[in-house]
Fold this sequence. Notes:
Blueprint: E1 2-4, H1 6-22, H2 27-49, H3 63-84, E2 89-91, H4 101-113, H5 121-137, H6 142-161
Antiparallel strand pairs: 1-2
Helix pairs in contact: 1-3, 1-6, 2-3, 3-5, 3-6, 4-5
Amino acid sequence: MQLKLDDIIESQKILDQTIQVRHNTSYEKTLAELKLALFVELGELANEVRSFKFWSIKPPSSKEIILEEYVDGIHFISSLAIAAKANNEFFLPENIPVLGKKELTLIFNKLFSQMHTLNNPHGIHNWFHEYLVLGYHLGFNYDDIYQAYFRKNQINFKRQQENY
Length: 164
């Protein structure tokens, strides 16, 4: 299955430009912050999925909360992709299964361990691809991700207007 994220990337560019003008900054000045924000969002997502919490019987958060955390990561990886001029065309296998706790934990660990690859367009593209695959393993399809991204994007624009 081929995914093109043109609409998401274009919308993210507009949000990023709004933020950059408002805060007198640029991608070059904020790359370290964008990477750290992505790292934090990945941790927040893992916390809601709860796949690593072998000591707890509490179930994962609702699918809606997990999706909201997931698209927070889409915002930051999109900004990094834009800054690096990375390719935004992805090919995903058909019928990606929802995975169990152990497999999800391994994917999270892989994403965390590959954060260092976010220094070049190829590394960003590969990381973004793995993140999209994670979303599919969590049970989200392209429409889920697309719609949730734009809902959160509107919130992010509103936050800028309200001096967030």
